[in-house]
Amino acid sequence: MQYRISKKMQNLKPSAIREIFKALSDPTIISFAAGNPAPESFPVDDLARLSAKIFAEEPSVALQYGITEGYPALREDVKARLSSRFNIKQDGQMTIITSGGQQGIELLCKTMCDEGDTVICENPSFIGALNAFRSCGCETVGVPLGDDGIDLDKLEATMKACPRAKILYLIPTFQNPAGTCMSLEKRKAVLALAKKYNIIILEDNPYGELRFAGEEIPTIKSLDTDDMVVYSGSYSKVLSAGMRIGFICGPEEVVTKMVVAKQVEDVHTNQFFQMLCHRYIAECDIDKHIEGIRALYRRKCNLMLSELDKNMPDCVKYTRPEGGLFLWCTLPDNIDQGAFIKKAMEKKVAVVPGQAFNCDTSAPSQCFRLNYSTPSDEQIITGVGYLADAVRSML
Amino acid sequence: MQYRISKKMQNLKPSAIREIFKALSDPTIISFAAGNPAPESFPVDDLARLSAKIFAEEPSVALQYGITEGYPALREDVKARLSSRFNIKQDGQMTIITSGGQQGIELLCKTMCDEGDTVICENPSFIGALNAFRSCGCETVGVPLGDDGIDLDKLEATMKACPRAKILYLIPTFQNPAGTCMSLEKRKAVLALAKKYNIIILEDNPYGELRFAGEEIPTIKSLDTDDMVVYSGSYSKVLSAGMRIGFICGPEEVVTKMVVAKQVEDVHTNQFFQMLCHRYIAECDIDKHIEGIRALYRRKCNLMLSELDKNMPDCVKYTRPEGGLFLWCTLPDNIDQGAFIKKAMEKKVAVVPGQAFNCDTSAPSQCFRLNYSTPSDEQIITGVGYLADAVRSML
Q1: Are B391 and B340 in contact (CB under 8 A)?
Q2: Does the beta-carbon distance from B135 to A264 stay under 8 Å?
Q3: Domain A7-43+288-393 carries which CATH code?
Q4: Which of A2, A6, A61, A361 to mutate to test the interface with B (most CBs of B within 10 A)?
Q5: Which pLDDT value is given to residue A12?
Q6: What's the gap in Å between the CA of B218 and the closest CA on chain A?
Q7: Where is B371: in which H helix or E strand?
Q8: Quick one: B7-43+288-394 is in which CATH superfamily?
Q9: Tens-digit pLDDT profile for residues A178-216
Q10: How close B216 comes to chain A (CA, Å)?
Q11: CATH number listed for the domain at residues A65-283
């Protein structure tokens, strides 16, 4: 049979990162490629204890169909935290549970965009979001990132040039892959531009709880007085990635439609784990738990930075993140990036090549992304050494 | 802000059934509206015991990101059962785990259809599937159902008339809502038509394990020698609906693309419950468990039928299903269906009006759907009595 695959899916490739993840079944490879939380960050004992209680006390609720919007008590928990921790008001807003942060991104795109519409993104940006937009038949148009966030002049020029732009996708806090934070001034300016051109902002904030240095910057959503922002968050980086629980908070009119889109995708998110999340938040000290994760990543990030400082030739530049999971490195022009990635792989160190994060994936990149949350201390020390060797051998 | 919602989502309404489900928080209402499995069908003790083992033995795998295709051991379980139980060969096919059967339906549509394409459906059909197709911007075209499945002449006429038809969506076994089974001859004829017009068949089989009377009929997928069929199954009706675990088996070229579509929707299905499913299948006797569910539904279905036989005026016709979860009832022409549904609701009995299942939701219906898996025996007896009263009062 000659399969007639849809135009939007025909040329869409699996995420390079997910593919690398599959290749990592070789245990001798040191992977700086994943974006996985550290396994020691999962509160296993508490989750095991609370699971047993759910099976004992409410099995019929936990194993039965639930409602699409999410388990009511967990939605209340999320709303309370958005309000108290992130200063995000709830009036006129609707907050629902999603199957990971990823689902919220895709649902918003489906809700707002028809095929041929445009999503404006930071360039580089999160590959999972870029592919979600492409899977809806949207064009992704990139605007370059500076050290303090997106280039405002180029953003406005892009908005002006793209009448079919419906969404501006931003990761303002610990951007993936660049690790940078958007300044408060830029957050305000971006809001004003979105209002001027009637474009919804999707503020993706999976790493917002993971600041381990520097000063907190308000979320864009907390500055929004015109209901322009849909905010996406996740428990993947603070409780468990494998359980697939995230949330969306946005204008009621938009999120009501997202609920319909979610209903036809998976009816609702795993009910048992929504209840488990709720019990964890109700009965344990999530702030203390998150403080522990921050301390862990601060230590791991500092270890990777000090190893880079000691070993890596000066011609390689890298960010010094204040939170999140990633370092972003730039090779000098005289080193061929593809040859470097290949050489690193020969030394059994996996990194993600920068072009995976480009809106235009055919555009070249001198960059690569390093993750410090997943590898062990020993792997960080050994792996960075190998990467430095690879660079030196190419000078 | 004036939100620019996408054309495909603008007019899409939430599923009437899901909305009824939400309204059922009133505990005095007798609901025949849901499609929920009976709570006593969940193997709670086994799941609790196996969950504790997963937390003790493999917490880092269960709480961490997994791969999009699904937990490998569970995929092997599914493949083995498809082959041994349903005679579905695996060569040239790919089998992946989905977040419930619902997700597989939506993923196939996204993979095959661009906006404006057509999905041909039985009329009436499963509302969750119809809405999934609509959410992808597809037109749903209905072909009437007879007692032994879809009308073949009208199906061919529709295929001929719709050059943009990409998918033929069928629930051949215990059709939802009609409860009927497609005959073996029709299954073969439908395959031949699909081949002639180069249209993929989506065989949705959530109730295939729930036959409690009559002779088994082979799945369409098991008869398919041309890789025309994508088969969707689910653990929702045999283990737990709330866990959201289903699967898809179809031609490798198509399912490979569905994996990419799934990756951008939810990355992967809840990892812990995939492992729990696998352990249940490996360590417990799922056949014996399913036999128990069949006995339960046989009894409940027979109870509802005998109450209808005793109490309902002869002018109301209803199916006598050999499996699944539903009865399909037809009112005589002289009873206004909307007024009847309203009267039933006044008597605190909820049923689903037939037009919810129409491809053209503005088309009238004299039918309503009754579920016998969720209500208690007492509720079945009382509720059917009230429905009969409602009919009598309208004669």
Answers
A1: yes
A2: yes
A3: 3.90.1150.10
A4: A6
A5: 87
A6: 22
A7: strand B367-371
A8: Aspartate Aminotransferase, domain 1 (3.90.1150.10)
A9: 999 999 999 999 999 999 999 999 999 999 999 999 999
A10: 28
A11: 3.40.640.10
